[in-house]
Amino acid sequence: MSLPKSITKQSMELVKVLPSIFKAAKTIYDISKQVKANKNQCKRLSERVQCVVAILKDGSLDDSNIASMEIALRNLEETLQESVNFVQEFTDSSIISRILHNSDHQDKFEELTTRLSYNAIDLHLALNINSIFDQQQDVFDRQADLAEISSKIDELALEMVKQQEVTLKQNKNIKDEFKKRFDSFKYNLRQDVLKAQKGIEAKIIEEESKLFLHIPYHDLLFEEQIGQGGFADVYKGQWLSQHHQVGIKTIRITYLTDNIKQSVLNEIATMYKIRYNHVLGVFGACIEPNNYALVVEYMSLGSLFDVLQKNEHINSWEDRWSIALQMAKGVNYLHSMSILHCDIKSLNFLMEKAIDGYLVKISDFGLAKIRQETSRQTSEQAQQLVESRGTLQWKAPELLKFGKPSQASDIYSLGIVLWELATRCIPYDGVDEAVICQGVKAGERLEIPQDVPSSFASIISQAWSQEPNKRPTASALIQVIKTFISNTVEKSNIPKISLAQAQPNDKNVIKPEVTLVANELYTSHNPKLEALISQFQSCSSMNLSKQHLTDSDMDIVIQQVIVNKQCTNLWLECNKITSKGASILANALHNNTTLCELWLYGNQISDTGVNYLATALTINTTLKKLGLAFNNITNAGVSHLVEMLKKNHTLIMLGLAMNKIGNQGVQALANTIAHQNTSLEILTLDRNEFISDSSIDVLVNMIKQSQTMKELWINDCNLSEKGKKKFREKIAFKKDFKLVTTYERSS
Fold first, then answer.
1. Residue 356 has pLDDT above 80, yes or no
2. Domain 302-515 shares a fold with domain 526-740
3. pLDDT(37) > 90
4. What confidence tens digit (pLDDT) does each residue in 113-125 have?
5. CB distance 562 to 531 below 8 Å
6. 9-18, 206-215, 239-248: which range is least confident on average?
7. Is 343 a catalytic residue?
8. CA torsion angle 381 397 474 232 (round to 10)
9. How confident is the model at residue 403, as a pLDDT?
10. In 337-379, which ranges are continuous DSSP H helix?
11. How many of the other CB atoms lie within 10 Å of CB of 167?
């Protein structure tokens, strides 16, 4: 390739850059003819590149300022190389599966076009910028590409289903599953086109997407049916894109009219926002015609009802007390959020084995509209199933008299569940429904066996009191259960505590004020912490550093700071939070939509705690900055963060200073950031004494390959002075990159 004739001796340094620029331009031209999607936009980008390069080939370079011209050429070279990589994506047949994220492509086209125009300006090229980079033409190209996608939706959807062929082979009903997935791909492609067209429909779709995470049907794999309830069938399954085992509750409705849809979406949104250890987490929902499902946490033991009837677990009263406490906590949390469950029964408490016994979570809350619509759309046969699995055995007497649901009616139902827990029996098994109704309204109750400890019998009896105002609140239950647990459960001479005395006489308040329940919610109290939190405004930053906080304070932090006040930036530095506290924080992070920064410097999180946080951040799409400095994290902890960074595309800053991370961890981290992460901008690894010169090459490659990294702190590690110099020289071409190998402290 011949070089420009007018190149002078003074500008010979610039000549070294030109061949790679010309080569990249030729590559863009060639591959733009081979793309399978976004053809018009790829062609337009290529034409603009050719316009810029043509002038360079003619020798139109301003060599009056060699230094600035070299920088401008290097920037152009970087833009063209990034354009090559981007356009290359559309030549791959697998791009078909990524058309669903077409709006992301639009942003990238706009970014590259803008950068190219700036490159031309910086090079002082004689170009009509406004004409060549006509934004109206970009709009026409975009519309043409969208029109092509629209005309090929069936073809694209079919191709996408074929790519899941291996997955489909595992399904017994393969023809029906093939059609469902085809319809799902087709529906989501249409939605994507509507969003890209930016019309009225796009605004509606955008507003709905803010309510909760919408998970396409084709992103779910149904493995086996594990349950069947009044409004849904429950499956064990996989969330394919997240490689995560989940529970999938397929709701028995086939369509949603506009006037019903918003109510259903709002109910799901309420469930989605709730994060608490003893409330079943909702990851998102599938809302597609003929495919409506909730995607929730998978609990391997199934329901409390299943566990009790299998007679394989729960042999000790210690376990029973623990389960009772966790159930009361779950109900109390819902009541504190002004949510009535209205369907409490043993089938709606799900269980998982834990290190110290069992983990219990309440499910199926806040679904009145969904239940109503399910009932309306279900067939007579399905309705009979609903009735056979009804809730009559758990209904409070006032509800049998057409009274309104209340917190007290939820507590009555919980009393029946406590009786099941104590006896392992099915309530009113084999008794006619009319007889049950008559007996319950008359004040008759199930018999409590003599071998049930009097303390446990006491809370059952008071929970199912005939008069609603004599039943305890869930908060009062928690307090008294904890009192009994603190004593020896088997003792028969435990003083009987009146639960009714432990609560205000609220006379069936249906929805309490959330502000009144702060002290009812937590299993431990910290008046100083609560007073400090009360000083902060909602939706603001909160600094709770150096407050001697422990794991037991995390429930307060979650409820008052993250849930109630919707904190945006949270400092918890220099406290005494361990991996247990990290697990509580992680549980809240799963679907949190407000917290953007979390700083945990100087705690005792450890590798185990990092695992909890990393798992949550594979799903969380809000948190942007995470500080984990000085937390005794090793390469093992980094391995969890590596897996998280492969899936998380919102985190921009990760702080790992002052830990015990070595070269192995750094290399895994750097390789992931270089090739599998598209968001991280700042990484701090300073003061990790096990990081040496052997990590330099992989970090250099990370900086070269990553399209987002802007800043790396690696000072005060075990790098030699020669290694630091080599590092700086190798990334000198990235003028705007901030590399800190030596920290200069101010005097």
1. no
2. no
3. no
4. 888 888 888 877 7
5. no
6. 9-18
7. yes
8. 0
9. 82
10. 368-377
11. 15
Domain ranges of the chain: 9-151, 157-297, 302-515, 526-740
421 beta partners: none
Intra-chain end-to-end CA distance of the chain, in Å = 56
The whole-number average pLDDT for the span 136-164 is 73
Burial class (CB in 10 A: 0-12, 13-18, 19+), 356: exposed
Q: How far apart are CA 579 and CA 581, in angstroms?
A: 5
Write a three-state SS string for 673-715. HHHCCCCCCEEECCCCCECEHHHHHHHHHHHHHCCCCCEEECC
Which residue is associated with the tokens 């849930």?
563
- Collapse the DSSP code of 235 into the 3-class scheme (helix H, G, I; strand E, B; otherwise coil) and give the result: strand
Question: Taking Cα atoms as reference points, which of 687, 647, 643 lies closest to residue 669?
Answer: 643
Residues 6+ apart with CB under 8 A from 283: 213, 215, 239, 244, 246, 295, 296, 297, 590, 591, 619
Cβ-count burial of 101 within 10 angstroms (0-12 exposed, 13-18 middle, 19+ buried)?
exposed
CATH number (3.30.70.20, 3.30.200.20, 1.10.150.170, 3.40.50.12280) of 157-297 reads 3.30.200.20
**Of 496, 330, 499, nearest in space to 410 by CA:** 330
CB-based contacts of 678, cutoff 8 Å, min separation 6? 649, 707, 708
Cα angle: 12, vertex 15, 20; to 5 degrees: 160
How far apart CA 603 and CA 276 sit, in angstroms, is 22
Q: For residue 281, which of 267, 265, 298 has the smallest C-alpha distance?
A: 298
Query: Which candidate, 513, 557, 554, places its Cα nearest to that of 532?
Result: 557
d(C-alpha 572, C-alpha 548), whole Å: 10
Which whole-number Å values give the CA distances from 42 to 99, 109, 141, in the listed order?
15, 8, 9
How is residue 228 written in tokens? 């069947």
Cβ neighbours for 292, distance < 8 A, ≥ 6 positions apart:
250, 251, 253, 254, 256, 285, 286
What is the value of pTM for the model shown?
0.60
> Is 712:703 a contact under the CB 8 Å cutoff?
yes
For domain 302-515, the question of CATH label 1.10.510.10 is answered with yes
Catalytic residue among 183, 192, 343, 555: 343
**Helices 635-647 and 606-617: crossing angle, nearest 10°?**
0
- The domain 526-740 belongs to what CATH superfamily? Ribonuclease Inhibitor (3.80.10.10)
Q: How many CB atoms lie within 10 A of CB 213?
A: 15
d(CA 274, CA 277): 10
> What pLDDT is attached to residue 497?
41
Kindly tell me the sign of the dihedral angle through the C-alpha atoms of 300, 305, 306, 312: positive
DSSP class of 247? E
